[in-house]
Amino acid sequence: EVQLVESGGGLVQVGGSLRLSCTASGFRGDDYVIAWFRQAPGKEREGISCIVAMDHSTYSADSVKGRFTTSIDNYQNTVYLHMSRLTPDDSGVYYCAGTVGEGKVWSWPNCRTYEYDHRGQGTQVTVSS
Fold first, then answer.
1. Structure letter (DSSP) for residue 15
2. Strand 46-52, strand 32-39: pairing
3. How far apart, in whole angstroms, are the C-alpha atoms of residue 123 and residue 129?
4. How many Å apart are CA 88 and CA 75, to the nearest integer?
5. What is the dihedral of CA 96, 18, 71, 100, to 10 degrees?
6. At 78, is the secondary structure helix, strand, or coil?
7. Are 125 and 8 in contact (CB under 8 A)?
8. Which residues in the chain show pLDDT less than 50?
């Protein structure tokens, strides 16, 4: 059974940084893809990044490029979302979602619109001004 567990959310001031973690279990080897999403009250869900565990290819939304970085520790099966220069617009519930790679071609924006099989419970990020 695949499980995804996020951690690292919290309260941060404008301009600050946070690192979110998504630890995956249950995938076979490194053949999986993890995406990060966020949702704020009254706003649509936004896919912000994804990473292919096999080759570390990463993709991200324009809204976070230059501020957010996605990385992976394959040994720990943990994907990180490094967030910097945070603004109040970055507030929301962040969650990771994942699926088996299975030889698919992953790129942007398909990895943000893909219907992932698994998702974590989410972690709250609040940026105060």
1. T
2. antiparallel
3. 20
4. 34
5. -10
6. strand
7. no
8. none
| Token digits of residue 73 | 């520790």
Phi, psi of 90 (to 5 degrees): -85, -5
Single-letter code of the amino acid located at 94:
Y
For tokens 């099989």, name the residue: 117
Encoded amino acid at 75, one letter: Y
What pLDDT score does 12 carry?
Answer: 98
Closest CA to 70 of 49, 47, 55, 54: 49
User: Torsion-angle region of residue 112: left (phi > 0), alpha (psi -120 to 50) or beta?
Assistant: alpha
Surface-to-core class of residue 55, CB atoms within 10 Å of its CB (0-12 exposed, 13-18 middle, 19+ buried)? exposed
